[in-house]
């Protein structure tokens, strides 16, 4: 009889242990929990620690207290200046009302399906009134703040708070990017051609100035050379006149030698003169006018 009693007591202890383990649940610092009974929320537990529920009849749904990520799909947006861009944005949110979150979206997958379109709609609404220059300037911070306020107005009914919204990238569509690239290339080629034309014009101007200065310098040098040459010729003539005036026979002999040198140069020189011509006076006599 005692063995049966021990067996019953042991069975009762095991069942009690199982019941206690299924009735206890722990909430960590980074989570919050909703106790559900037959799928209906009974209470919300936000404080960390050990808690209790009815075994079998109740179960627990956990939600994060930490900031969660939301990456909506890339959205094509037409800006106020009629420029279309592809906006890749991301959002960060926190669950502040677990009960409302459970009632509206239940899971993080549900909030992604509901909040993603809201974020993109806010992006279209706010960026539709902005220009590309403002999106790419310091005004972007104010634009993001306005988007966050707009999304928070809608996100509050899901029991969440939007912590931040940022634009990761803002690009032109492929066809617009190619067109912009083509315009930029054409503009740079036009500027390059303009710079080349200006450089060629300056080079021509510098070259013309240098040629003019070179011509002036050569003309001045030639003029001075001619002046000096004339002075030299004059001095030479004066000296020769003085020298030749002292001896007429030597002057005639010297001039005849110069005439012979000028006339008899070259290998095929022919001269037709009379044998008794004065040109040959110094060939037939020792002294002018004297026959050998």
Features:
three-stranded antiparallel sheet, disordered C terminus, 292 residues, Tetrahydropterin Synthase, Chain A
**SS content category:** alpha+beta
- The CATH topology of the domain at 68-171: Tetrahydropterin Synthase, Chain A
Number of strands: 9
Any low-confidence stretches, pLDDT <50, length ≥5? 288-292
* The top level CATH class name of the domain at 68-171: Alpha Beta
The separation of the N and C termini measures 188 Å
Number of helices: 8
Order of helices and strands: HEEEEEEEEHHHHEHHH
Largest sheet: 4 strands, antiparallel
- Output the CATH homologous superfamily of the domain at 68-171: Band 7 domain
The CATH architecture assignment of the domain at 68-171 turns out to be 2-Layer Sandwich
Oligomer: single chain
Write down the Rg.
Answer: 57 Å
Average of per-residue pLDDT values: 82
The shape, in one word, is rod-shaped
Walkthrough of the structure:
The protein is built from 8 helices and 9 strands. The chain has helices at 2-23, 98-104, 108-127, 132-135, 140-155, 174-246, 248-263, 281-284; strands at residues 24-27, 31-37, 40-45, 49-52, 58-64, 68-70, 75-78, 84-95, 160-171. It starts with a helix and ends in an 8-residue tail after the last helix. It has 292 residues and is an alpha+beta fold. The strands form 3 sheets. Strands 6, 7, 8 and 9 form a 4-stranded antiparallel β-sheet that branches. A 3-stranded antiparallel β-sheet has the order 3-2-5, covered by helices on one side. Among the domains are: 9-64, no CATH class; 68-171, 2-Layer Sandwich (Tetrahydropterin Synthase, Chain A), CATH 3.30.479.30; 248-284, no CATH class. The radius of gyration is 57 Å and the shape is rod-shaped.
